[in-house]
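User: I'm writing a short methods note and want a consistent example. For Sphingomyelin phosphodiesterase, I'll paste the sequence; you return only the structure tokens, no commentary, since I'll be parsing the reply automatically.
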Amino acid sequence: MPRHGVSPGQGHRRSGPEQESDRTRGSPRLRLLWMGLPLILALVLWAPAGAHPLPVQSQHVGRLVPQLRDAFGWWNLSCPVCKSLFTAIDFGLKKESSVEWVGSIATKLCKLLKIAPPAVCQSTVQLFEDDVVEVWTRSVLSPSEACGLLLGSTCGHWDVFSSWNISLPAVPKPAPQPPKPPAPGAPVSRILFLTDLHWDHDYLEGTDPDCENPLCCRQDSGLPPASRPGAGYWGEYSKCDLPLRTLESLLSGLGPAGPFDMVYWTGDIPAHNIWHQSRQDQLRALTTVTALVKKFLGPVPVYPAVGNHESTPVNGFPPPFIEGNHSSSWLYEAMAKAWESWLPPEALHTLRIGGFYALSPRPGLRLISLNMNFCSRENFWLLINSTDPAGQLQWLVGELQAAEDRGDKVHIIGHIPPGHCLKSWSWNYYRIVARYENTLAGQFFGHTHVDEFEVFYDEETLSRPLSVAFLAPSATTYIGLNPVSPPSLQVTGSTK
Ligand SMILES: *[C@@H]1O[C@H](CO)[C@@H](O)[C@H](O)[C@H]1NC(C)=O
Ligand SMILES: *[C@@H]1O[C@H](CO)[C@@H](O)[C@H](O)[C@H]1NC(C)=O
Ligand SMILES: *[C@@H]1O[C@H](CO)[C@@H](O)[C@H](O)[C@H]1NC(C)=O
Ligand SMILES: *[C@@H]1O[C@H](CO)[C@@H](O)[C@H](O)[C@H]1NC(C)=O
Ligand SMILES: [Zn+2]
Ligand SMILES: [Zn+2]
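Assistant:
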């Protein structure tokens, strides 16, 4: 009789003969599993296309787990059988031909379920299949994790997105000081805050702004029907990004808002054509837009943060323990080169390793740029290990403690706002903000494309606000947004 709902730690120690029968009965079910995999893959692939900037999160995995567990309970698998099954699956999956095969099934399913237009299905799967299969074999499909999940902790250890704690120094927290407004006439420093520029190299005036692809107003969008107007010269209120001329106009029009002491630029430089982006495309966006910003802001120092669209596949930011060609070094090296004139050597050093850095723009102020892709639910590399990726939060604690010791104030910039992060990351970040509330003078993020803020409260009563993160609106009109005038910028006044 089929058994349902095996919970962790519940009867799964079985003897030899049953393993035999499991194996023989297993073959049609094995095929089932092979079929199920691409479906999961397709769901995971779909998540990034739909997720940004709308707050749709990819929780497909969470919903699938009980169903998978049911299926395995039904199969009545023993621990050694489970482990050899997954060892075999991983071995098979790592072959190039299986990646292609998984990819072809994922593509078929994507087309069948009309997840995206056929050409988009095809190229999305091609773009993601290598990295996703690599990550899956090292995480959810590894014998220990998979069997830990399906058969309980006596068989393996499921620790995908498990919770973790950073450690705070023993130094007692200073008594909270309510913020004091600056004295009248105190010197003010003007900071330009730019985010989510999303330059579309292939933007084309007159094309269909309402095409069926995830990004329109571009060469491959076709022409609109005679009854509707085509994409505008400067941009379009639709699922469209911006031509370079609009960014140029934005930057050239900054004059009256300045002069600026510095610029916070919180990422997302390339367009949303995430189904068809090469490393070369991403680097062209990085260098072209960096050159444009330099041209119009001249000697004003610009402090960038790494957005989720900088990489390809989108959201794919392997932590530093991934080495070789899968690593992010192609991107971070190019950033270090492009931003060399803005950042000191120590900042360039950590940027090369993990895409984050700290520097002192002037005496008394420390600026910390975080790589928020290490907090992201959509960064599929974190399935392998999501525990404080790159040690970034522990490093942040060190920076904040040093700033507290010196009596400095700190600004944090980053792309994805902390409220959109994986639970454990968010929780730890909240603790850090609460511990260093006197030192932390400002937080600035982007990614949501709209003008909003996130408030942090004290951890004891959750009633005393102690910090706020400002989220700036995007430069791009994606999706159907009206950039503020002058577009996409907030001018932040703060006392020197
Ligand atoms: C599953 O295992 C249990 C105990 O090991 C056994 O009694 C039962 O018959 C098995 N069920 C199936 C469907 O093989
Ligand atoms: C983290 O700390 C909290 C309380 O400070 C505790 O409840 C939780 O169990 C800890 N988590 C881990 C994984 O140590
Ligand atoms: C590294 O990976 C990229 C992207 O997957 C690929 O285009 C390139 O050919 C690879 N390079 C090497 C040396 O394998
Ligand atoms: C995950 O990363 C953390 C921090 O780098 C490390 O302490 C831990 O051992 C890693 N876990 C696994 C299973 O590799
Ligand atoms: Zn964006
Ligand atoms: Zn983003």
